């Protein structure tokens, strides 16, 4: 096992060192990423300054929703967010170099970069999470604690899978960055808002196609014991790991098909 | 009888190129980049793979190494199907693309070697010894700790070649390794490559536009033209095939006005007031011995050298002959 992962540890290690080499600019990047998160949170705050309840959620609940969605997204973005730059890898021949090494291509792509600066947003979201957990009236059973942990892990996995989907799509659409962003950044944006405020088609889209509702909204329903809107019963909040497995299956299938398309076996 | 290290049969690869034609319409053109190649390379051999820009050399190499899937035909490299056994094959071959880097831009070579050793799961002691050998032979010592992006082209290529050889592959494939290098760097690289061959028996396949590379490093050449085989054999054989002439330069003891009329030769030039004569002769017409004998009856020969045909000229002639042949075939087809 150790021997197996050694290559990846060395690869990621070298990425980490090169980022931390310039401490000043790294600190600036970290702050910048946190500041962008703060601006987005301000948007939520402004909305609730005008109305008390939005889609069954009050401000405290909305803050919890925001925190969960952002922790998952920013962690995924840190670890794997660069994979949607696939066209750059193709252009520079980096993907060919991956194909000439005795490791899976996707694993090499994932470990080829880490964007530590995006942890600025994670830190902000973490702080909001702590505050919002105190603000909300949550029944702290063991099951609810477990749910919170599972939600964070599965949420990260779901966003990571969306990044892989976005990468796979770009094997076909070399100019498809915009389209690919709809999966990832679009999904992340939708995840910050209660799915109940969306029209039914959008609700279905962001639950069962792009499963971003699983990353935060559905677990929040369980934690606060709220009833879900039509079509989204509360118990779905326990199914985040299933959603993660499902979207990863789609992502890996898409990636394999995309790689086959690139090497020319598919088309 | 062992299996050839590279075995290619009726290999084809097409690319579909879509280009805008008018506002909404797009035309699809199928480009046959490699068009029915068959050849085999023996273990331990050194082969030059030659062809004009766009002839299909890089495409062939990508199919040999598992980067591209053939449209049809079969490839076997190191007894493996390159695409299906890509990861196993990667341990047995080393590949260098002169125009693209496989190193990490922000890492110094020392770090890159360490990373590659982990990727190939090499034993610490073994790879460190190999690295030291490569650093010594390729003279990498002075820039081992400089990030790759700050290296000169020549330094980078040497680093790339060391990186491709760190896991001691049986087969080394080089796509234009000497492109952009100065004469001295080219020469050093050639010395290094032939030395590796002698020491480790590494099989060599290289594409190049530099005929000196071919002459110095390889015993066999394969010429492709528009994805098709134009020639496969030795360099002298190629010269003979296109009827390239060699030139005998004769220095005489006493001046002679002209050596016109020596059978099978053509006077190219008379220099130094008749002391030096250049006679061109084709391989089929006569032999060097026969010329010497004929000249001996007309004057005393003090010294002689034979100039081999200019290879670039030979390949140009081959291309001309090949495309003429093609035109005829196409004319017949249509
Ligand atoms: N990915 C691709 N898509 C479309 N056409 C391609 C692609 N790769 C190569 N081709 C075409 O295939 C043909 C052969 O290209 P290839 O790169 O194999 O030539 P080459 O012999 O390596 O040339 P050079 O000496 O310039 O490197 C060219 O006509 C090229 O335009
Ligand atoms: Mg090429």
UniProtKB/TrEMBL annotation, chain A:
InterPro entries: ABC-2_transporter-like. Keywords: Membrane, Transmembrane, Transmembrane helix. Signal peptide: none annotated. Coiled coil: none annotated. It holds the Pfam family ABC2_membrane_6. The chain crosses the membrane at residues 26-48, 60-83, 142-169, 204-223, 235-255. This is ABC-2 type transport system permease protein.
UniProtKB/TrEMBL annotation, chain B:
One of its GO terms (biological process) is response to antibiotic. InterPro entries: AAA+_ATPase, ABC_transporter-like_ATP-bd, ABC_transporter_ATP-binding, P-loop_NTPase. The keyword ATP-binding applies. Coiled coil: none annotated. GO terms for cellular component: plasma membrane. The keyword Signal does not apply. SUPFAM superfamilies: P-loop containing nucleoside triphosphate hydrolases. Gene3D superfamilies: P-loop containing nucleotide triphosphate hydrolases. It is found in: Cell membrane. Residues 6-251 form the ABC transporter domain. Pfam families: ABC_tran. GO terms for molecular function: ATP binding; ATP hydrolysis activity. Keywords: Antibiotic resistance, ATP-binding, Nucleotide-binding, Transport. It is a peripheral membrane protein. This is ABC-2 type transport system ATP-binding protein. The lineage of its organism: Bacteria, Bacillati, Actinomycetota, Actinomycetes, Jiangellales.
């Amino acid at each position: 096992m150790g021997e197996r992962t050694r290559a990846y540890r060395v690869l990621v290690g070298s990425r980490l060192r090169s980022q931390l080499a310039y401490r000043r600019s790294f600190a600036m990047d970290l702050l910048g990423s946190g500041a962008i998160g703060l601006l987005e949170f301000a948007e939520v705050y402004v909305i609730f300054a005008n109305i008390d309840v939005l889609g069954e959620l009050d401000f405290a609940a909305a803050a919890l929703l925001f925190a969960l969605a952002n922790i998952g997204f920013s962690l995924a973005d840190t670890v794997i967010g660069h994979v949607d730059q696939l066209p750059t890898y193709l252009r520079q021949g980096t993907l060919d170099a991956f194909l000439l090494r005795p490791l899976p291509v996707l694993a090499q792509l994932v470990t080829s970069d880490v964007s530590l600066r995006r942890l600025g947003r994670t830190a902000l979201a973490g702080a909001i999470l702590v505050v919002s957990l105190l603000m909300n009236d949550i029944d702290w059973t063991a099951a609810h604690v477990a749910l919170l942990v599972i939600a964070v892990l599965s949420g990260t996995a779901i966003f990571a899978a969306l990044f892989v989907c976005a990468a796979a799509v770009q094997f076909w659409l070399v100019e498809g960055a915009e389209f690919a962003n709809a999966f990832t950044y679009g999904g992340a944006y939708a995840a910050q808002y209660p799915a109940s405020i969306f029209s039914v088609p959008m609700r279905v889209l962001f639950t069962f196609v792009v499963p971003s509702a699983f990353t935060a909204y559905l677990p929040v329903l369980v934690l606060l014991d709220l009833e879900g809107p039509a079509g989204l019963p509360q118990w779905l909040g326990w199914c985040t790991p299933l959603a993660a497995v499902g979207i990863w299956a789609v992502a890996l299938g898409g990636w394999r098909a995309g790689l086959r398309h690139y090497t020319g076996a598919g088309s | 009888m062992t299996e050839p290290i590279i075995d290619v049969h009726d290999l084809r690869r097409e690319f579909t190129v879509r280009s805008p034609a008018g506002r909404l319409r797009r035309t699809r053109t199928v480009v046959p980049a490699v068009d029915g190649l068959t050849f085999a390379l023996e273990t331990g051999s050194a082969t030059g793979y030659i062809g004009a820009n766009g002839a299909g050399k890089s495409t062939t190499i990508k199919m040999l190494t598992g980067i591209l899937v053939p449209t049809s035909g079969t490839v076997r490299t190191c007894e493996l199907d390159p695409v299906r056994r890509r990861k196993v094959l990667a341990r047995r071959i080393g590949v260098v693309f002169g125009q693209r880097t496989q190193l990490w831009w922000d890492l110094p070579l020392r770090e890159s070697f360490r990373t590659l050793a982990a990727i190939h799961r090499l034993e610490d002691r073994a790879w460190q010894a190999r690295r030291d050998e490569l650093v010594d032979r390729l003279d990498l010592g002075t820039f081992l700790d400089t990030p790759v992006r700050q290296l000169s082209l020549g330094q980078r290529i040497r680093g790339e070649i060391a990186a491709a050889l760190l896991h001691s592959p049986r087969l080394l494939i080089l796509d234009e390794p000497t492109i952009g290098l100065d004469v001295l760097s080219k020469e050093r690289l050639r010395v290094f490559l032939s030395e590796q061959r002698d020491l480790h028996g590494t099989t060599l396949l290289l594409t190049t536009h530099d005929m000196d590379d071919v002459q110095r490093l390889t015993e066999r050449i394969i010429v492709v033209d528009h994805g098709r085989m134009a020639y496969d054999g030795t360099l002298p054989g190629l010269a003979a095939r296109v009827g390239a002439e060699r030139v005998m330069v004769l220095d005489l003891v006493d001046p002679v006005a002209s050596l016109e009329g020596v059978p099978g030769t053509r006077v190219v030039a008379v220099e130094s007031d008749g002391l030096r004569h250049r006679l061109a002769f084709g391989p089929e017409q006569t032999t060097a011995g026969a010329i010497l004998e004929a000249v001996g009856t007309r004057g005393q020969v003090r010294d002689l050298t034979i100039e081999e045909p200019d290879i670039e000229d030979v390949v140009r002639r081959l291309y001309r002959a090949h495309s003429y042949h093609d035109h005829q075939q196409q004319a017949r087809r249509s």
